Amino acid sequence: NEPILLGGGDAGFTNEVPDSSKIPVATSTSKAPKKSKLDQELSGERIQEDGVVGESVTSSASVSDMPLEPGMAQPDVTTVVTDPDTGIARIQQGKYVMDKVTGKAVVLSSLGPEYRLAQMFPGVPPETREKYRFDMATVTVPEMIEGLREASTVPLKNSSTGKEWLGIPPHPQISNPSADFVLSNRDFLGHRMKKALGRLKLRAQSQFQKEEASELRALWKHFLLLEDHISAPFRQIILNAEANVGPNFGNLDVKSYCDGDLYERTANYLVLKSMVAHWEKKYNDALALEEIPDDEGMNFMAQLYTGDPKRYLPDPPIIFRLNEVSRIVVMAQKMCAAFVAEADLFDDLPAEVKFVEQALGIQGGTALRQFMLEDFCPANNVDGASLREGLKRLYQQMFNMQIDPYGDLTMTLWNLCVATSVGTEEARDPYEEYIANVRGTKYENNPGFFQTYTFNHDKNSLVRFLDSAKLIEKGTAGSAEDVGRQIQGEAFQLLGFDFGGGGKGPEKEVVVEEKDYQVPEDRAIGRPHMMGWLDLLGEDEELMGGNGDKEEAFEADKWEEVKS
């Protein structure tokens, strides 16, 4: 069957999928599993490979995650462990999402499904919203940041010393006013506020304004904590949904495993839709890779830039070949379509979630907005402004999910947010001049600008490897044979495997004292070298969150909010 477009992708599909593939991969070094990787995926299992956590149809592969040893119980929450073979710290995924404020697993409400839905899409009472809500038609980024700072600043007291002060609670603690502020403006904050705070902190550092940089870092870190805390129940509910959908991959009787309360069915749909968008993207990548000529390594950079680089691992823990990916994407689309076709599963989902399904079948922004206002909103008893706010709040929640496999649907949501806001006051974007360099590259005319600089990079670093590849692309490396040999040698040195089918690794080099790295001009583009401002905060950056007070930072468990 030919795939149809469901997940928001923009490339076409082909009926004829070749059985073979010319995509270069690393040489296999371990024994083959009892079941093929494709069979494991189609069974809803994770791909099993030694030393890494393989992907499943609903979960990404990860080389940083530490797989469980045989007989080892999965921890309740994600923890950092040391790999006994390498001594490197790796992540061991837990059964539950950890709330960073409490340091414990997220607890979903025991008061019933309506309360769990409220945890999934949290809000505040009308009087609280009125107190903190700002006017997006006029508000500026400095006003948003000042509002966040005021809401986050509360009277504090050290219970052991009796010291009182006004400030942001020591990490990882939050106060109710700051959470209320973020929830009141959730659709306007999120990741763009994260970017703005991060850029302004770097701007202050680049101007060697240490105190301002420290204050901005503390506020930035606090906002990241608030985002993580607010989105934690959503992430837990989605994790539960993955456990429903993944093991049932290929089962079109979706009602048998996707039924449940409203919050559960909403999460099941989002997992299905994310799965479709993710595998459509993998299909498009596989199609693009098949069309890139090999040319004895000349197109190595184009191949490297396209698709998932984990395919270069020995025994890659992912599916990436076109003939295999196509089978998964077709089934994912059928499963999502079967869910939507079940009225008992789909028809009472939140309006913004249902809108996503119907909007992706409409071509053109004008037609989309006309459908929203004239058809969808009246049929679902919702006004345009409320629907747009719901879409943005859903987008903010989805943005806190891991990029793989949720990033593709998340970006589709953002495109819908932008398209539906055209012609309204919400189309105004106060963040743009702070995070997009639209007003030039000088401190005087760009409020978000900071001067970057080049570094001395290690000889075996990825940066030097890519710089060398750039030189090859520009034709400065000699003949095609020399180019292929150089590419293969550098890939072996950097990535640890032989790219392109042959040859020995590079000869052992004599260690010599390194001088300052001469950055290629097309990458340096006139920037200064080794300015050093990234080290301005020193220990404050790593240990104290920028508050300059080691004692208070390490006695976070002793603070308490002063009751007024």
Care to describe what's here?
- With 564 residues, the chain is mainly alpha-helical.
- The protein is built from 22 helices and 9 strands.
- The strands form 4 sheets. A 3-stranded antiparallel β-sheet has the order 8-7-9. A two-stranded antiparallel sheet has the order 1-2.
- Strand 1 and strand 2 form a beta hairpin.
- The longest helix has 36 residues.
- The radius of gyration is 26 Å and the shape is globular.
- The N terminus is likely disordered.
Largest sheet: 3 strands, antiparallel
Radius of gyration: 26 Å
Q: What is the number of E strands? A: 9
- Share in helix: 40-55%
- Name the beta content range: under 5%
Biggest sheet strand line-up: 8-7-9
Low-confidence stretches: 1-6, 8-30, 475-480, 493-503, 543-559
- Helix/strand structural class: mainly alpha
In one word, what is the shape? globular
Distance between the termini: 66 Å
Number of alpha- plus pi-helical segments = 22
